[in-house]
Amino acid sequence: MSSAETTTDTAETEAAAEPTDDLRAGILAAFEDELGDAVVGNHLVPGRDLWIRVTADAWRTTAELARRKLGFTFFDYLSAIDWMPSPFGRYEDAEVDTPLAEKLGQPYELQTGYAGGDTRFQLLARVFDVRHRNVGVHLKSDVAEDTMAMPSWVPVYAGADWHERETWEMFGISFEGHPGLRHIYLPGDFEGHPLRKDFPLLTRVVKPWPGIVDVEPMPGEEGGEEEEEATEGDP
Fold first, then answer.
1. Does residue 174 belong to any structural domain of this protein?
2. Which end of the chain is more exposed for a tag (fewer CB within 10 A), N or C?
3. 179 with 154: CB under 8 angstroms?
């Protein structure tokens, strides 16, 4: 057998060993066939999940396609992600982290997870086909920072109502066509959006965050042996 034949056989064996997922691959193909260039990114993990990113202009159309033509009648959730790294480090007054003044306004590398992205804020929703295929798909879209507005999914999935209200409240993303954006958790006159990375959680300053604790020195560390000896000498 020639070396070329051996190389070909090895490549074919490796390709055959790679996991495949015809079900999710077919779903991706269906979205691409219907939406065309509006599908700008995707990520498929065989046997686990599928992520599809679409343009903002196609966000509502994608929901209509998913429910009314592709069988994804069950709405799971809708929310947003702020991909900006937190400028506060562990918490607002942390002396062990870079001072806040040196972080705010500095350029950062945008990392937007599966299916990619071009903006700081993204919408993320999940829908299921529970009647026939028992499969779900994650749908994503970039949110333009100059508008911070997206089409509402409520006319398609009524269950998106509270999810969009929460996203509007916590991230400051408005939803065009929503029947009534109003606060769920915060007072009506509250200013700011607490789930944005650059929103300071001042309650952590007034009352230290439970995740930040003072750790006692271990034996062998400075102050540790003395405390251990004092403990052993107690009656």
1. yes
2. C
3. yes
Q: Note whether residue 175 is domain-resident.
A: yes
pLDDT of 71: 97
| pLDDT given for residue 87 in this prediction | 76
- pLDDT, tens digit (0-9, with 9 covering 90-100), for 27-74: 999 999 999 999 999 999 999 999 999 999 999 999 999 999 999 999
DSSP track, 78-95: EEEEE-SPPTTTTSTT-T
For 72-81, give one letter per residue: b (16+ CB within 10 A) or e. beebbebbbb
| Residues 6+ away with beta carbon under 8 Å from 138 | 49, 50, 51, 52, 114, 115, 124, 125, 126
* 8 A C-beta contact, residue 153 and residue 178: no
* Cβ atoms of 75 and 127 closer than 8 Å: yes
DSSP secondary structure code for residue 198 in this structure: T
Residue 175, SS3 per DSSP: strand
Whether 125 maps to a domain, the answer reads: yes
The predicted pLDDT at position 85 comes to 81
108-to-55, 83, 116 alpha-carbon distances in Å: 23, 10, 16
What CATH number is associated with residue 160?
A: 3.30.460.80
Domain containing 118 equals 15-201
* For residue 101, pLDDT beyond 80: no
Residue 147 lies inside a defined structural domain of this protein? yes
